Amino acid sequence: MKKTFILETDDDDSEKSILMHELGPDAIFAIWDFDQWIRSQIKYAGDDVHTEYIQALKDVRQELSNQLYEKGINVDHLIS
Q1: Could you tell me the residue range of the domain that residue 68 belongs to?
Q2: Which of 1, 3, 8, 9 is placed for a possible disulfide with 14 were both Cys, Cβ 3.0 to 4.6 Å?
Q3: Does 50 fall in a domain?
Q4: Domain membership flag for residue 9
Q5: Contact 30, 75 (CB under 8 A)
Q6: CA distance 38 to 33
Q7: Is 1 domain-assigned?
Q8: Total domains, the chain
Q9: d(CA 63, CA 78)
C-alpha cells in the first residue's frame, strides 16, 4: 500500500511543519522507550532504592500518561 502525504502551509514555519511530520514517528518511539524505561526502573528496583524515588517515578509515568491521553495519543496502540 502506498500513501502520499501532502503538506500545504501558508505560514513561515513550513520547514518546522515538515520536520514535525518527519520526526513524529521517532518522537512516538522515544516516548514509548521512555515510558518502558520508567516501568523497568519501578519493576526491577532493588530493596536499596528509596520508596520516595519509586513514587517519583510512578508520578512521572502517570503524568506522562495523562498528558498523552489529554492529547488523544495512545502510544501502545501506535507501537503495536
Answers
A1: 30-79
A2: 9
A3: yes
A4: no
A5: no
A6: 9
A7: no
A8: 1
A9: 19
